[in-house]
Amino acid sequence: MEMVELPVNKIIPSVFQPRETFDKGELQELADSMKEHGLINPISVKENGDGTYQIIAGERRWRASKFAKMDKIYAIIRTVTDGTQRLESLIENVHRKDLNMIEKGRGMIEIFKVHRIDMKPKEISNILQRIRHKRPISGQEEKISEILEKTHVNPRNIEYWLDSISADEDIIEDHLKTPERERISDTVIARVASIKEPELQKKVYTKIKKQDMGQKQASKFVTGIKKMAKEKPKVAKMVLESDLPIDIAEEIPEEQVIIDIPEEDLKEMVQKIDEGKKRTSEIKDQPIVQERIAHNENHSKHLVFLTLSEKAFCPFCGKDGKHLRWICHPEKTLPEALEQASVNFAEATKREDIDKRFENAIGRVIKNK
Description:
Elements: E1 2-7, E2 11-12, H1 24-37, E3 43-47, E4 53-57, H2 59-67, E5 72-77, H3 82-94, H4 101-114, H5 121-132, H6 139-151, H7 155-164, H8 169-177, H9 186-192, H10 198-210, H11 215-231, H12 233-241, H13 246-249, H14 263-284, H15 287-309, H16 334-348, H17 359-368
Parallel strand pairs: 2-4, 3-5
Antiparallel strand pairs: 1-5, 3-4
């Protein structure tokens, strides 16, 4: 191996590059850095025999050098076979943080193909799950396990990548052509791919993207819609075609659903639900209501204390747990404290102003909820 300066225009991309998109903004940032500090890590290439060089690793740096309008770039010339180059390029790229899950998934499929494992992504993902849970594996699964050791990638991550490329092709195409800052999470694509029916996948993806759901919300939505599509297909259809929240729709009986509900009626329904939630929140924020909540929870906790104490006894004298007492009121037993907690709650429901004695306690209850 030798390091030389090569003309940028004599270098061509690798035919084994799994990355399909390069963010122009990030390339420009790297180009600006290269202008100021130069190329810190040389790229690696191999000779093509016609005066050109093919990239083995470092295509992003090479593209940035073109942005920076550099004439030459440092490179290490290596002698490798197509098979070795393909494998090295693929393994290097699946370790890159700036590759999305779909690109990494496709890269992993190519790595498996190099090793003559030609299976569908979901099939390999299921095998990885078996390996990860240390279940008995077959000869082919043993081979896949050996490939994992070469890649040095967490099997759970590879499962996510392979699950993401199991999604419908229309979803993948739309996801990749969407500007990176506007895309939904790659992990969500993997969750959507767990839906078996392609058309349902597309509708769920469209709904998640339209409503800009976060990762947790989208994952919960996928779980809910999968169950609903089996048990209440009409309700599922209504949720996907309207703005009706899935947690509200779960309460609607299948036989009471009219598919052709006017959009305006649905919007009005959602608006009323939102208004109700807002009003509930405003009520809960009132100091007297917070005191009532605190007294109610205090009563519940005392009840738990009393229930548990029936099985406890003093390690010094053997008295039963009911004799355990508050330090500030040693003369009171737990049953008496329970009774007082109940009285406090009953009184709080009749008052409009909070009792200053319990102000600090209320703050602790609300904070720990």
